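Hi Y.,

Following your request, here is the sequence exactly as I used it, all 412 residues.
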Amino acid sequence: MQDISRRCFTLSIPSFLLGCAGRGTFSPGTAESAPQFAALNRYMVRTIGELQIPGASLCVAHEGRIVFSQGFGWADRDARVPLTRRTLMRIASISKPITGMVVLKLFEDELPGALERKVFGPGGLLPDARYAAVRDRRVLDITLRNLLQHSSGWDSNVYEPQYDLVTIAKAMGIPAPASGADVIEFMLRERMLDFAPGTRYSYSNFGYNILGRIIERRTGMDYETATRQLVLAPAGITAARIGMDKLAERFEGEAVYYDDPRWPQDVPSQTGIGSGKLAYAAFHLRSMDAHGGWVMTSTDLVRFVDAIDGRSGVARLLKPSTVALMQSPDPRITAPAAGLSWALAPGSWNHSGSLIAGTHSFLNRRSDGVTWAVIYNSFPIDPDIGMADAQPLTERTFKGLEAELLKAIAGT
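Below is the corresponding structure, written out as tokens. Let me know if you'd prefer a different format.
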């Protein structure tokens, strides 16, 4: 059975995304019954039924106006609570571009030069005394760009610290779970880099943990408050928050998350106390805040991405020059999809997110005026195949879905 230590993923970009502006506001309750969306409704109902996913949330915008926003199936299957467009759901790694946009906004007046600023050491963005002890001196070469573009030098295929919080806490002699800052201190003090910063791409949850701490130091606020004030509230998003771990702690209006029954049904808790199902024991979302901790709706995701350049009608979050920079991959990194917090494809910026239990999500902002987001409350992949099983899954949940919604948009 596959090792479950690396539990938060961004899927490789589906091949259909590699080839693929207006203003408006949300008009609630109009899209669900529109005749042109009947086939899209049927597709979603059929998909979650055949894949045995309890529920899903889908939002579609065209030229900045939300034209479809609806929930499907169950937010809570046992209690027979329907999933609606207002249901909050974990978004996993789509948290990363949210963090990235906060960083770009904070450093906007210093770009592009700020991307080359060093993170650690005297004069760095995180000169805190707790980060002064470094085992690998190459850590002092890490830049803001490296963190945003996943080229900082840590390879999560070698070691994933964000889901090893009990071990880290024990090594540091502190109560579990280790916080985001604790994880950074441990990694700098105890671990060598896996490659020289800036020399290659390696997707890193840990790198975005560091970005969260940079946001806190730069603003003097905790990460969640800073993100709400700087990016989410200006985009018209008010209900989003960093999630909680346990089923009993979930927020009012939040979905229940369902493990694939083929995966282990009892795993040690990240708190170091007890055990439980993957969805409610394998994660500590407060330590995952900046890379995978947000809970929100699919409508919130669409509002967020369409606010970046003002396509939704709100004041744009970033200047045109910053948006252009955001879409510029580092020519030194041989990863064609590596933008500043986004996966880049011809005609789109996008990001996916999955937790090995309970969350499977995608956000795609297309240059043809279509923006869409989908969140499912289960991630049905075979543990004996692992992430290799995710590609055929995305053919249905992402590629097939986009084809259906584009047909619907063409009929409006």
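Residues 390-410 form the longest helix (21 residues).

Thanks again,
Q.
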